[in-house]
Amino acid sequence: MIPEDILKIIHNKTLGSKELTLKLLKLTTNMNRDTIIEIFEYAAIANPTMPMLKNILEEIRTEQADPKQLITKLVNLNIQIANNLKKLLTQETSIVTFSRSQTVLEVIKHLHKEGYIKTIYVSEARPTQEGIKLAEELTKEGVEVTLCIDIYLPEQIQKADKVIIGCDAILPDNSIINKVGSKTLAIVAKHYKKDFIVIGDEYKYTEPTKVEFKHGPVNEIYTGDIGNIRVINPYFETVPKDLITYIITNKGIIKVK
């Protein structure tokens, strides 16, 4: 049986795929292999838009990798992504980002120390508001952050040099899956002729047939008592490749358009 504290983490919808994966790896460090596999099998089913969980599970099964090894590997992948991304940046770059990506957080922290990042524009990311957490984390690292409501974030793209987001999945045609709102930013970035850059590591790759979209609870949007209101609360969407300028992974830079 999966412990209750781990179940709560698996079903925490404010966590991105890498943050969730790292939390599970840290919690399972001293568990036996069968239990680790059971936990990751359940997590992968509960979070079908996060192929990282399935890919990590496959590595645990086939290569018998242990959690400590995988934690070290995932941390190092962030450094490799940062080193690839900085080839597209100048000193004191201003960036719009969205939601809260563990990869974006760690990459920005790394590049800020090297002088590549000056200002970050981020929105709250309703309904779960994980963008506020990202704003707080980056501010504590000394990054200059502007936080705004979601609907105003496209306006900030005019001020910024580039738009950089994480992703939950990278599809074979270089389209990506990420939190709802990402496509709007990509459309606006294209309108203002700003680079729209997606960062993610090798564990984010998946086949489109393996991705299932789920909606969040409607009470995150509406708690009133007026009937006949159709409420939808999608968490994820696909951003087509023609809206993406670059995909940056630990293996290199992919120019998409």
- How far from one another are the termini? 47 Å
* Helix-strand category: alpha/beta
Instruction: Please give the CATH class of the largest domain.
Output: Alpha Beta
Q: What name does CATH use for the topology of the largest domain?
A: Rossmann fold
How much of the sequence lies in strands comes to 15-25%
Poorly predicted sequence stretches spanning 5 or more consecutive residues: none
Q: Biggest β-sheet, characterized? A: 7 strands, mixed
Question: How would the blueprint of this fold be written?
Answer:
Blueprint: H1 4-10, H2 17-27, H3 33-46, H4 51-63, H5 67-85, E1 93-97, H6 102-113, E2 117-123, H7 130-140, E3 144-148, H8 153-157, E4 162-165, E5 169-170, E6 176-179, H9 182-191, E7 195-199, E8 236-239, E9 246-249, E10 252-255
Helix pairs in contact: 2-5, 3-4, 5-6
How would you characterize the overall build of this protein?
The chain is α/β, with parallel strands linked by helices and 257 residues long. It has two domains: 4-74, no CATH class; 88-224 and 231-255, Translation initiation factor eif-2b, domain 2 (Rossmann fold), CATH 3.40.50.10470. 40% of the residues lie in helices and 17% in strands. The chain contains nine helices and ten strands. α2 (17-27) runs antiparallel to α5.
